[in-house]
Amino acid sequence: VRIGKKRKPLDKKIYQMRVILINRQNKIGLDLNLFKKVSGYVSDKFDNNKNMELNIVFIQKDEIRQLNKKFRKKDKPTDVLSFSYQGDCTEFNMQKGFKTAGEIIISPEVASDNIQPGKIVPKSDWNFNKEIALLIIHGLLHIFDYDHESKEDGIKMENIQKSLLNDVLTNFGL
């Protein structure tokens, strides 16, 4: 699925948007190489400008709870938060020749909790890497102005999310 542009083969793909992954937690091991590839692949479907960058930060459960309380007024941990900078056009960005599309903040601990027995998971073979891929996709959709505030918007976002997830699962063998 390519949003707005023709898809190129995966084996020859060089991702345009610069993706920076920062791991500020140490409780759960992460395949950062896989997540960088997944995020580059998906982000280029929205904007493949080489002067754009995306930050993905993995943090502890207590830290994401604090951020969720501060920015969403919900005093509980969440799996993912997104901060879009799409409307920002600062002098710094123009002088340096690049722009940050946004930041995705993910709690691997909460993501791990999401896939535990008794939880509702999208597929029977669901695992941690698939959950992180889903959270990256979900975060990117928010950065590029999709939301689920209304029922109609939620259905639209969910359909795009499912399509992107199926694409990622197929192309990355997850």
Features of the shown structure:
174 residues, alpha/beta, 4-stranded mixed β-sheet, 6 helices, globular
What series of H and E elements makes up the topology?
Answer: EHEHEHEHHH
Proportion of residues in extended strands: 5-15%
Helix content: 40-55%
Cα end-to-end separation: 17 Å
Poorly predicted regions: 1-12
Largest sheet: 4 strands, mixed
Mean pLDDT, to the nearest integer, reads 84
Q: Strand order, main sheet: write it out.
A: 1-2-4-3
Helix-strand category: alpha/beta
Give me the count of strands.
4
**Radius of gyration computed on alpha carbons:** 16 Å
Alpha plus pi helix count: 6
Judging from the principal axes of the Cα atoms, what is the shape?
A: globular
What is the secondary structure topology, with strand pairs?
Layout: E1 18-23, H1 32-43, E2 52-58, H2 61-72, E3 80-84, H3 91-96, E4 99-106, H4 108-114, H5 128-143, H6 151-171
Parallel strand pairs: 1-2, 2-4
Antiparallel strand pairs: 3-4
Word description of this protein:
The protein is an alpha/beta fold. The protein is built from six helices and four strands. It has a four-stranded mixed β-sheet, sandwiched between helices. The radius of gyration is 16 Å and the shape is globular. It starts with 17 loop residues before the first strand and ends with a helix. Mean pLDDT is 84; it is low at 1-12.
Brief write-up:
The chain is α/β, with parallel strands linked by helices and 174 residues long. It contains six helices and four strands, in the order βαβαβαβααα. It has a four-stranded mixed sheet with strand order 1-2-4-3, with helices on both faces.
